[in-house]
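COURSE: Structural Biology Practicum
ASSIGNMENT: Worksheet 4, Part C
STUDENT ID: 0417
INSTRUCTIONS: Below are two proteins. For each, the amino acid sequence is given first, followed by its structure token string. Answer the questions at the end about the second protein only.

PROTEIN I
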Amino acid sequence: MSISLCGLEFVAVNEATTVLGTTKGGWVYAGQRPCYEAKTPNFYVLPSPLTEEEVANAMGVKAEGASSQQPTEALTSSELGELAHHMMNTPEFDEATKNLDGAWELRALTQAEWQAARDQRILTLQNGFTERLADAPSSNNRGAMMDGRPRPNELLGPASTQKAAIAVHPRNETITAITSVPFDRPLPKVVARLALTPVRTSEPKRVPEHTDRWKNVRSELLWTTVLGIVPSFLIPVLRGMGDYATEGWVNLLFGGLCAGFFTGAIWRPRRPVLRYDDVESSSMSVAQ
């Protein structure tokens, strides 16, 4: 099923529950945690990023120069919002959404919507390209919207003028990464697309902002002891240097702490997935 609007063809994406982030426990993966479920409703999306010709047609003007099927890299997040606003104020938008339940809007995809459409093989993005999202940038998944609505920008400073974006690896299309791009400045190989999606009016359900810090501290003390401190003292004993284990305990303790720190960067037990139904409010704390 699809919807035609201002010369653009939007393809249906089914309601989905998508797991975002990683359960890996190493510190290097902290920016991708906590791993959580996002539930997205049925919506519609452009299968490919917008081309210059499609933008011109949607605005009701004639494209200059030769037509190209390649995505335009000149469209900023600000201009994408203006395009969406223009299309939503046309009779075609009213006609396209009159049989849909509730209020609908045109905007960029959120990360959850993008992943849901990708999993259903609806959308494509060329290797090495980056796509603008509707979400605000963030350092991790805390505060993320679990119903797929755009994450608001609650940051100060330079980050307040940025938008989140998703990048595809130059050679492996299965590998993606979340980054950020300027709101009002085009960049090479940064493209955009529109989605027709229902407006969420209910109270948002968000990934909790805080973790169970004491539980994390206990876990870190345990694994630093097991993987760092204990082996550091055990090795000289097994090599027949038991006296050094008592005389040089300061050096061994320091070495064990360093080893524990290194192992913590690349490995710790996997963290649980934060389930949508387990979150009652954004004030919850979970050990992630």
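PROTEIN II
(use this one for the questions)
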Amino acid sequence: MDEKEKRQIKNKILARSRAAEKALSPYAAREKDCLRRSEYKYNFYRRGFVRDCEAVINLAQYNRYGGKTQVFSLHANNDISTRASHVGLVSRIARTIGRALRLNCDLIEAIACAHDLGHAPFGHKGEVWLNAATQKYGYTFAHHVQSARYLDHITRSDMSLPVTDGVLCHNGECVLQTYRPNERATRDFAQLEEKLERAYRGEITQEELMPATLEGCLVRICDVIAYLGKDRQDADRLNVHGVRDYTDHGAGVLNHEIIRAAGEDIIFNSYDKNAIILSDALYAALVMGMRENYAYIYKTESTGITARQSEQMERAVKEVFEFAIDDLKGGKGVLESIYFPYIYANPDRVAQYREADKDRPERVAADFIAGMCDDYFLSFYNRYIGKLEIGKTDYFD
């Protein structure tokens, strides 16, 4: 094929891209909104947020989703959710709704795929344990903040601002009736850095964590939709709480019922509007549904970790955290061999990260633990600290 024919194909593809962007909602994000720290040069078919989608799924932490607990830790069971299955479901639900609302589905996919990159091992219990360890140093650990830190500071992956902002602002523990970008949304990288620093000190407010794009707002509520019914399904598989023993508050009880009811409601109430809006009925149903999940799943010992195991694990996380700090201050060079080489493919970016945080070992120690899968944490503890008798189930328990 000669250069003229190639040029003609490129022009046709670019023309279709421009037409597709023109057909988006007036409130959707566009290529001009894809702000980066660098002057990134796109090619004719991999433009804007498409680059971010591909960058995310090539990150080391994306690979590790499959080894991280969603809710039920210490169970050897391939039929219950991991971070990988949860992230895939969030992405699918959000893109389906986003397409109906004529939003930018590439941005939606990038945010959804990246939103839990900073999650600690052992689910939200692991997040609580790690935060308890970091508080001694005046550092607050939160997985949504860590996810944004991973993209912008640790890997320095040149992710666009709308993606990093959408990741920072996702909060699946808090359901709102209306999600609308506000005047406190993140508009530039200086503002992002300032928010991250205050988040590290535990000073960020929820009002400041509203995404700057409708796509980010949609992913935030789809995070809830994705886990509400799926966690019930997992609890049923493990004989924790029967999936039919929940109350239908108006959005169904089963996973597929909740996804369908919520999707239709959001589309009907948000179409051609500058916000993601839930009806009074859906909002109430999701709030009541979450309360049931907390009562029957999240706040009991049914997640697979008993009170005694929880005490053991919290102590173990603190021990690993202190080990990492000592190692960074001149210990045995363990992190030098097993952490830094595996952060990112570009060693220059890793060197920049190390230099920036050379006087903040508590941040790097938290990064180290947050990057672990469940089994890797247990293996690390048993190799470098002591024997952790945690009693993980096998497949035939």
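ANSWER KEY EXCERPT:
Q1: Residues 307-384 form one domain.
Q2: The radius of gyration is 22 Å.
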